[in-house]
């Protein structure tokens, strides 16, 4: 799927040197955000790009403008994984491989983790891609439930919890055991199996009293449902 740069429609054609600077800023930001998250110092991004901070702000007046450009390609990759999983011949394998791909993307890229796990405002075109990913996530779950391999009481909010927890696990283990998240994910996936499943003690997050979606009240549920939940 071709995804447009959300800033291009606002720009006049750039001179060759300006285009080169802009491309260098984007490349440096992608690398910096992947390592440090979307709040990485822009001064460091400008230095890595070989430009003055004023040049960076000339192309991207706010941090959000730069985040949106970087987010576009990252979310397009995520969308591709969701589309493949939703069309998988084996729905359970599609479900498990999808979560594995998503967790790997997050583990390798802190910016993607920030975008997926927090309520960061994004351009309309990017939000529409996230909405499509959420819908595909529901399709992936329903197909596995209809197959009988995914427990029938699992909900998209439960997928959101996996990603929310994964973010913390990666942050805590990145420097000492960068692959530790795989063990946690495997344990979580076992809990999604219908075979030998036991009743769960409480309803899905979105169905709990006082949580957004049940009463309309704003809570932290909004921050974990950007890609998976019942938002």
Question: Would you give an account of this structure?
Answer:
This protein is 63% helix and 0% strand. It has helices at 16-36, 42-49, 53-59, 63-86, 91-108, 110-117, 124-147, 156-173, 180-192, 221-224. The relative contact order is 0.11. Mean pLDDT is 84; it is low at 213-225.
Any low-confidence stretches, pLDDT <50, length ≥5?
A: 213-225
Q: Give me the secondary-structure category.
A: mainly alpha
The helix fraction, in percent, is: 55-70%
What oligomeric state do the depicted chains represent?
single chain
- Compute the separation of the termini in Å: 24 Å
What gross morphology would you assign?
elongated
List the secondary-structure elements in sequence, H or E. Answer: HHHHHHHHHH
Largest sheet: none
Number of helices: 10
List how many beta strands DSSP finds.
0
List the SSEs and their pairings:
Elements: H1 16-36, H2 42-49, H3 53-59, H4 63-86, H5 91-108, H6 110-117, H7 124-147, H8 156-173, H9 180-192, H10 221-224
């Amino acid at each position: 799927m071709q995804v447009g740069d959300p800033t291009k429609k606002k720009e006049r054609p750039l001179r060759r040197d300006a285009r080169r600077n802009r491309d260098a800023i984007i490349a440096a930001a992608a690398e910096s955000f992947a390592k440090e998250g979307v709040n990485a110092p822009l001064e460091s991004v400008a230095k890595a790009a070989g430009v003055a901070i004023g040049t960076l702000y000339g192309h991207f007046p706010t941090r959000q403008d730069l985040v949106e450009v970087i987010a576009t390609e990252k979310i397009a990759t995520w969308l591709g994984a969701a589309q493949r999983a939703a069309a998988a011949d084996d729905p359970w394998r599609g479900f498990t491989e999808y979560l594995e791909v998503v967790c790997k993307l997050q583990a390798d890229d802190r910016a993607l983790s920030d975008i997926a796990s927090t309520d960061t405002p994004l351009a309309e075109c990017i939000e529409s891609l996230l909405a499509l990913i959420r819908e595909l996530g529901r399709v992936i779950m329903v197909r596995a439930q209809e197959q009988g391999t995914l427990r029938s009481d699992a909900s998209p909010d439960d997928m959101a919890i996996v990603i929310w927890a994964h973010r913390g696990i990666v942050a805590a283990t990145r420097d000492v055991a960068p692959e530790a998240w795989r063990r946690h994910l495997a344990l979580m996936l076992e809990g999604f199996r219908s075979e030998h499943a036991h009743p769960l003690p409480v309803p899905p997050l979105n169905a709990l009293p006082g949580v957004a979606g049940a009463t309309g009240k704003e809570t932290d549920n909004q921050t974990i449902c950007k890609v998976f939940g019942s938002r």
